[in-house]
Amino acid sequence: QDAIDRKEKRSETFKTAVHELEVGTHALKTEELGLRAPQWVRDNLVTMCMRCREPFNAIMRRRHHCRACGYVVCARCSDYKAELQYNGNRLNRVCQECYVFLTGHVVLEDREGKHKGILEKGAAEVSGRSLLCGSLQLLDKNGKGGTRGWFVIPQDDPLVLYIYAAPQDVRAHTSIPLLGYQVRDLPQGDSRHLFQLVQSGQVYTFMAYTEELKQRWMRAMARSAVGITHPEEDEDAHP
């Protein structure tokens, strides 16, 4: 009974996870798994396994593609074989979730028992229902370098800025609580569109890629900083 319950839980979790990803990647519907070839998620859109969330590296944790769903996964999470109808029912490398769905076999090792932490929200998932998302650069204290990444203010968590290394990563590498911060505009110099979040000596400096994007981010962060949690369109409709 425990095995049946785990299988049902995994299937429901997988059905929820398989959806149309952002930035142009279309995931297969659950019932289409194995029937036709998936569109692979591009390697450069992720920096970590899309199943276990462990970061990739060049030596010990390399990228692989699940031949059923197209996700980018590590060797451990793709150490399964299943027959795929679109490939003449040959055995192909698949991820654990697809293996369970396609074969009906239960994997006894439980990798889904961990509670999702505050950073364990997929970028594509939260970007699809965000107040604002897009590419920014968070500069270091010297203002010369820093972190380029995918930044998201989710609708269901609008007081926090999540920072991902890539737009389809399944885990944010850091977050910044926005409530109480002041948003400060900085003069444009050397074609750099800069602004800051400032609170009690803590300063974050961001660089947007256009002036229009800078203004949009400043407005969204300023709203979150004072606790406005509904989309901007709602406020326009109710002045």
From TrEMBL:
Keywords (A to Z) from UniProt: Cytoplasm, Cytoskeleton, Guanine-nucleotide releasing factor, Metal-binding, Phosphoprotein, Repeat, Zinc, Zinc-finger
Residues of the PH domain: 129-226
Domain spans labelled FYVE-type: 43-103
Main location: cytoplasm
Top-level taxon in the UniProt lineage: Eukaryota
Any one GO cellular component localisation term in the record: cytoskeleton
Protein name (record): FGD2 protein
Organism name: Steatornis caripensis (Oilbird)
Subcellular localization: Cytoplasm, Cytoskeleton
Record bears the keyword Zinc-finger: yes
InterPro entries: FGD1-4_PH2, FYVE_RhoGEF_PH, PH-like_dom_sf, PH_domain, Znf_FYVE, Znf_FYVE-rel, Znf_FYVE_PHD, Znf_RING/FYVE/PHD
GO BP: cytoskeleton organization; filopodium assembly
Molecular-function annotations in GO: guanyl-nucleotide exchange factor activity; zinc ion binding
